[in-house]
Amino acid sequence: MVRDRFGRVAGAQDGIHRTPSASHRSWIRRRLTPPPRWIHARFRSLVAALALVGAVLAAAPSAQAQCIDEAIRDELNARRRYRGVQERVFQKALRHELSVMGGIYSADLLSSYAAAGGAYTFHFSEALGLELAYHWSRARSELIRIIENDRGVVLLRLDQPVHNYMGHLIWSLAYGKVRWLGGSISRFDFYLAVGAGVTDNQSARGLTFGGGFGMKFYFGEWFAMRFDVRDQILQQEILGESQLVNNIVATFGLSIFMPFRQ
User: Fold this and answer.
1) DSSP secondary structure string for all residues of 3-57
2) Are both 248 and 212 inside the same structural domain?
3) HEC states along 58-101?
4) 80: domain range?
5) Is 239 found in the same domain as 148?
6) pLDDT in tens, 59-105
7) 33 to 27, 43, 186: CA distances (angstroms)
8) Which of 118, 120, 125, 121 is nearest to 92 (CA)?
9) Phi and psi at residue 229, in whole multiples of 5°?
């Protein structure tokens, strides 16, 4: 109970204590009565739902970041695989190559003439091979023919065959692939050749040393096209004059590889 400053009970007069009214007692009873159980259950459900939503919202950024990290990792791996050097699709190692070729033979002291020939190559590895080549052409000189016609003498027997036998060590310096006019893709090699041999004609003297370069384009498992340029260095004698000459042989050819399957 509440007392005033004189020690009397609040609301009491002449020593008489007044009891609360019925409405006051009902209000106090409502305030002191605990809430029903269903309110506690709903409150707990609401708290659990809010906690679940918070957990989902907190986990979403980390899951999204993980997905982005995985996507970046896959892209980097794909780029790394693209940049890496891939294995050769066309294999040459321990295979035999047969070639037929045709082109032009350009001699320092003679006129240019058509050339034809062939080659056999054994490839020890993808980088090294041994080539045995033969070229045929003819010895002609328009200048000597003019002089002979003017003087009425035969200075040199022209229109004679030229036989060239050469052996080359082939070194594949680089390889790659090319797309033809936006269509099919083929592989190619760029290689160097160095070797020696013999030139058999009436003006050649001694050994012939050779070197050059070439390219081969591969189709399928056993077919190829080749382009070759060879510089043949030899001692040649014309009209009593001996000179060191550089004769050029430029050819285009077709090749087959055996065995036919890699």
Assistant:
1) B-TTSPBTT-BTTBPPPPPHHHHHHHHHHHSPPPHHHHHHHHHHHHHHHHHHHHH
2) yes
3) HHHHHHHHHHHHHHHHHHHHHHHHHHCCCCCCCCCCCCEEEEEE
4) 22-84
5) yes
6) 656 555 556 567 677 776 666 654 555 567 789 999 999 999 999 99
7) 10, 18, 91
8) 125
9) -130, 125
